[in-house]
Specification:
Elements: H1 2-16, E1 27-28, E2 41-42, E3 45-53, E4 60-69, E5 75-84, H2 95-111, E6 120-124, H3 147-155, E7 159-163, H4 174-182, E8 191-195, E9 201-206, E10 216-222, H5 226-235, H6 243-258
Parallel strand pairs: 1-2, 3-6, 6-7
Antiparallel strand pairs: 3-4, 4-5, 7-10, 8-9, 9-10
Helix pairs in contact: 2-3
The protein binds 2 DNA strands through residues 50-55, 58, 61, 89-92, 94, 97-98, 124-126, 129-131, 146-147, 161, 163-169, 173, 211, 217.
DNA sequence: GCGACAG
DNA sequence: ATCTTGTCGC
């Protein structure tokens, strides 16, 4: 197992060299006034990706890519694919299971020059809120490289990582996060920065919808800042899980049920 | 040594 | 991730 982890870590480090953790895109969030009429690009198409697995066939799964209209949150594109996944799940290396299907679905959309190709993707898993994988050429590793980072680099698209559970890393534990959330002295507008023992801000915990005490964990995937990521996630939450991910989740499960 | 460990 | 019914509440 340790030999496997070493190989996966090395592959992760290679991709990590391309990671960008700041805003790097040519559109805006389309606040109100200066929208489309002013000529600037506005964020319109947000993609969501998820995989569901079969109960009796653990190696067969369904990957689903959806695209939603940022403003209406309507699903404007959907594509699912049944695949065989033999790569085992190893904590810290989730992306290696998801990457093949993800790339296949995205490439299909790209090749067909679809009009609603996503400007940004939301991934169910973490971004830089992820365990260290070792030093990178003597450089200090400032953050991890979760599946949202991994898929973002592969697609060369901005990505946001959204976890439903906390992956304990850099001293961040459920009890620690609970303390931070309860100590709402930081009456931040709904989210708490997650600062690890290293002093780095790895993500944010936020109560995304009214009826959920359980937070979601947002972190930078690729080519977006944490501030932008949080803002975008907030705007796409009708329920606890942001719509792009929720829709991909629901539809991948449905598709798998119908076709297996 | 033991437990923890995204989906 | 997946195994799973009802149930309490807005």
């Amino acid at each position: 197992m340790t030999i496997i982890r070493n190989g996966l870590s090395k592959a992760q480090d290679t991709l990590k060299r391309k990671l960008i953790t700041e805003d790097d895109y040519n559109w805006k969030l389309g606040e109100s006034e200066e929208d489309e009429s002013s000529g600037v690009q506005v964020l319109k198409y947000i993609g969501g990706f998820d995989i569901s697995f079969s109960k009796h066939h653990p190696s067969s799964a369904c990957g689903t890519l959806v695209v939603l209209d940022f403003k209406t949150l309507n699903v404007v594109y959907e594509d699912s694919s049944i695949v065989t996944i033999d790569v085992p799940y190893v904590p810290g290396f989730l992306a290696f299971r998801e990457a093949p299907v993800f790339v296949q679905l995205l490439k299909k959309m790209q090749d067909s020059s679809h009009s609603c190709y996503p400007q940004l993707l939301m991934i169910d898993g973490n971004g830089i809120l992820h365990p260290r994988v070792g030093d990178l050429m003597l450089l200090v590793v400032k953050n991890g490289f979760g599946s949202a980072c991994h898929l973002g680099v592969l697609a060369d698209l901005p990505t946001i990582g959204v976890g439903k559970n906390l992956h304990h890393v850099d001293g961040l534990t459920n009890s620690r996060v609970r303390e931070l959330l309860e100590a709402e002295d930081n009456f931040n507008v709904g989210f708490i920065p997650l600062v690890g023992d290293s002093g780095n801000t790895l993500g944010a915990a936020l109560h995304s919808s009214k009826g959920s005490f359980k937070p979601i964990f947002v972190s930078v995937g690729h080519r977006v800042s944490l501030a932008s990521a949080v803002e975008i996630v907030k705007r796409t939450c009708k329920y606890r899980v942001p719509e792009p991910i929720r829709q991909a989740d629901i539809r991948s499960r449905d598709y798998l049920r119908k076709h297996h």
